[in-house]
Predict the structure.
Amino acid sequence: MIVDKVVLITGCGGGIGKSLTKAFYTYGFRVYASSRSLDSINDLKEIGINTLRMDVKDRLSIERAVNEVIEKEGKIDILINNAGVSSFNTWIDIPDEELEDVIQTNFLGAVRTTKEVAKHMIKERTGLIINIGSVAGFLPMPISGLYCASKASLHSFNDSLRVELSPFSIKVMLVMPGPIKTDIINKSLPNFKEILSNPESPYYPIHKELLDRPLTSIKNQVPVEGFTDSLMKSIFSSRIPNHFKYGPGSKFGLVFLSWLPTRLIDFIFSKKFGFSKLKSIIQKNGQNKKDN
C-alpha cells in the first residue's frame, strides 16, 4: 500500500533511525533516510528507500537535503529528529570537541532541521514533527551530564515549539525512550575509558567504579523492534500524544527519582557511582599529609 505521505528521518545509520525508516517504508510511506555517512545507509537504498547525506551539524547540509526532498515531493509531512550521539564523562574531563559534537548533534541539529522543514509545513498548514529525546532528559545524572543536558534542552525546545506551531495545525511529539539496544553507547566508550584511565584525572581513584556507569545502561537495554512497534502504533492512533514514553526508567525509575529532594538524589548518586568513596579517599589523604 502506498501512502501519500513523505517522511524525513535524521540519523538513520543505525539503531532507532534505521528501524523507524524500515517501519515507515513497510507501511507504504515515501521515506527519506538521512545520515552524515551515505555508506551507513547503503542497505536502505538497496531495498528501495530514498537516501540523503545530511550532517545536522552543518546548516548548509540541512538546507540542501530538505530542498532536495521538497523539489522531488513538494512537501514533507513528517519530520523525525533522531540524529544523536552519546557521551559519558565527568564535566571537567570532557574535551571541547566532545562538548561541541554532542550539543550540535543532539540539540542544535534538531532545531536547525526543524526550522528548515517547518517553513514548508506552515505553508501546507499541516505536519508532524517528532523529536527523539530520552529518559536522561528528566534528571541530570553524573558521568552523563552532557548527554542529559543536550536531551533536556531538546525536551524544552519540543514543548515550547508544540504551542508555537499549533495554530498552523502542525503537531509536535516528544519521544522519551529508556535504554534501547543500539550502538550509540558503545561508540562513546573508548574515549571515556581513555580519559578516566589517565592517572592525571582527579577521578582516577574511582575510575573503575565510574566505568561501570555505561555498563548499567547497556544491561538495561531493550530491543529496538519493540520500541519501534509501540511508537508506530502511537503515531497512528486517533489522538497522537504530546509525549511518548517507552522502556526502562521512562515511566517510573528516573521519573520517580526526579521528584525526590535534591539532597537525597545527591546521596543516592554519590553512593552508586563512587563519589562518596572518592570523598573518603581525599579526606584520608588530607589527614595523612597533616600527620606527616
Remarks:
- The mean pLDDT is 90.
